[in-house]
């Protein structure tokens, strides 16, 4: 039979085959008529063991089949004598490449979604899960200085972010002489990436953080901000402290009560006071704070006794009426955050300035906390008791594992000393109510 033609193929009956002529050992194109009337094409050759092998070429056109057969013949003649195994290996390799390409496309999709913004927000969610009170302030910082100030950086895949990209955001604050804010942002960026890296193998991490699959921390290369954490030195003198107390004692309603309670309890951290609820008022003469500062996985319970004046201030804030919070300017609907307290304290500071009652520059709420520490130290209250009152410097092994004394009496005596210093008279003392053990 001569070379295959369309007419020859049409003349075939179902089951019949026909082939192109070929020299011995070249392999040839073969056609077979199917029951359906279609023609199936094959490349037929003799394997190295003498077996006659047919490689399917499909049911396309004669022209396409001949092109495929010619290509296989060329490979066969070049030495690929077992084409079936060679093609099988190539099919496996092609499949592997397709799967790798698909995996790469999927990884690219994940990478595109795993943005720096997603990482920072997942980090904050992880902080909330761990009960960290600073979560809201961290979120506000990264929103303000990354999302709003650097939207392209916020939307960049976290895996593509470099130290230079992050430095651009931090440097913008440093250039504006906002060193403390720059230091905070650097710290948050570094912590977020570190948390993302750890989350890959931490079942307790929030799923959103684990899903980002962070594998490196470019923020680790950011240099610390020199002078950003330089300690403030402002502490009110006895005269300034008494003028401040006199003014806040005369402010009616919740506004004055808020400032009085803050001072009368030793200027506890505002974020901890803001979390106080009616359930944290113990026997009417103590409040129970939860100190989450630092790397604590569980908050440290911190009980602060109240002088009668502090109890009066607590009642004047009218906490628990509209909600459960007691350190409040909204009758308990919300706890009073730092900005609320600072706004009211700033107004008092300005009034003192205008009246010539300040011996130095203006002061902040943080300066009031330092003032309590400083004035109690000058009055002879030991560092240990000051630390117990303000819940700081208690991270050592002894305090953490062995010292179970509650220091209630010592804290009360320190608060009485503070009241005497700022009011110029001794505080009335109420008997402490203790629950039966």
Structure write-up:
The chain has 437 residues and is of the alpha+beta class. The chain folds into three domains: 6-81; 114-221, DNA polymerase, domain 1 (Orthogonal Bundle); 238-423, Intergrase catalytic core (hpI Integrase, Chain A). It contains 18 helices and seven strands. A four-stranded antiparallel β-sheet has the order 1-2-3-4, with helices on one face. A three-stranded antiparallel β-sheet has the order 5-6-7. Helix 4 (116-129) runs antiparallel to helix 5 (135-147), helix 4 packs across helix 8 (179-199) and helix 16 packs across helix 18. The longest helix is centred in the first third of the chain and has 31 residues, at 83-113. The model is unreliable at 396-404 (pLDDT under 50).
Please describe the structure with a list of short key phrases separated by commas or semicolons:
437 residues; alpha+beta; hpI Integrase, Chain A; 3 domains; 4-stranded antiparallel beta sheet; 3-stranded antiparallel beta sheet; 18 helices
Quick overview of this protein structure:
By secondary structure, this protein is of the alpha+beta class. Helices cover 50% and strands 9% of the residues.
Beta-strand share of residues: 5-15%
Helix content: 40-55%
Integer tally of domains: 3
Radius of gyration: 39 Å
Coarse morphology? rod-shaped
Instruction: Say how many strands there are.
Output: 7
Q: Could you name the CATH homologous superfamily of the largest domain?
A: Intergrase catalytic core
């Amino acid at each position: 039979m001569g070379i295959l033609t369309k007419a020859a193929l049409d003349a075939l009956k179902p089951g019949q085959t026909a082939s192109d002529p070929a020299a011995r050992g070249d392999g040839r194109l073969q056609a077979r008529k199917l029951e359906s009337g279609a023609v199936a094409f094959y490349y037929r050759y003799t394997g190295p063991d003498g077996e006659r092998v047919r490689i399917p070429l499909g049911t396309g056109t004669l022209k396409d089949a001949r092109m495929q057969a010619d290509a296989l013949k060329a490979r066969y003649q070049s030495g690929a004598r077992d084409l079936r195994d060679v093609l099988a290996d190539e099919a496996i390799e092609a499949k592997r490449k397709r799967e790798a390409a698909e995996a790469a496309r999927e990884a690219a999709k994940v990478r595109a979604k795993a943005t720096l913004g997603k990482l920072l927000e997942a980090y904050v969610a992880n902080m909330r899960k761990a009960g960290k009170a600073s979560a809201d302030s961290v979120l506000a910082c990264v929103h303000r200085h990354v999302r709003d100030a650097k939207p392209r950086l916020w939307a960049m895949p976290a895996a593509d972010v470099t130290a230079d990209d992050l430095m651009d955001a931090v440097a913008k604050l440093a250039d504006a002489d906002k060193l403390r804010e720059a230091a905070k942002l650097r710290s948050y960026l570094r912590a977020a990436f570190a948390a993302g890296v750890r989350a890959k193998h931490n079942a307790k991490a929030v799923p959103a953080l684990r899903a980002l699959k962070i594998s490196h921390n470019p923020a680790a290369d950011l240099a610390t901000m020199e002078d950003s954490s330089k300690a403030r030195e402002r502490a009110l003198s006895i005269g300034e402290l008494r003028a401040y107390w006199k003014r806040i004692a005369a402010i009616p309603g919740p506004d004055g009560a808020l400032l009085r309670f803050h001072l009368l309890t030793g200027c506890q951290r505002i974020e901890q006071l803001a979390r106080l609820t009616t359930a944290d008022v113990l026997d009417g003469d103590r409040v129970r704070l939860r100190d989450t500062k630092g790397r604590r996985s569980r908050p440290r319970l911190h009980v602060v006794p109240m002088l009668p004046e502090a109890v009066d201030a607590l009642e004047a804030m009218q906490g628990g009426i509209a909600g459960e919070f007691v350190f409040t300017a909204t009758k308990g609907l919300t706890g009073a955050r730092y900005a609320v307290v600072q706004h009211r304290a700033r107004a008092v500071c300005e009034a003192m300035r205008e009246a010539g009652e300040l011996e130095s520059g203006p002061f902040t709420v943080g300066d009031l906390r330092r003032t309590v520490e400083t004035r109690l130290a000058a009055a002879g209250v030991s560092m240990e008791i000051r630390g117990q009152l303000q819940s700081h410097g208690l991270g050592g092994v002894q305090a953490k594992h062995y010292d179970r004394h509650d220091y209630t009496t010592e804290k009360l005596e320190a608060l009485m000393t503070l009241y005497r210093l700022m009011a110029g008279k001794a505080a009335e003392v109420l008997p402490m109510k203790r629950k039966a053990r």
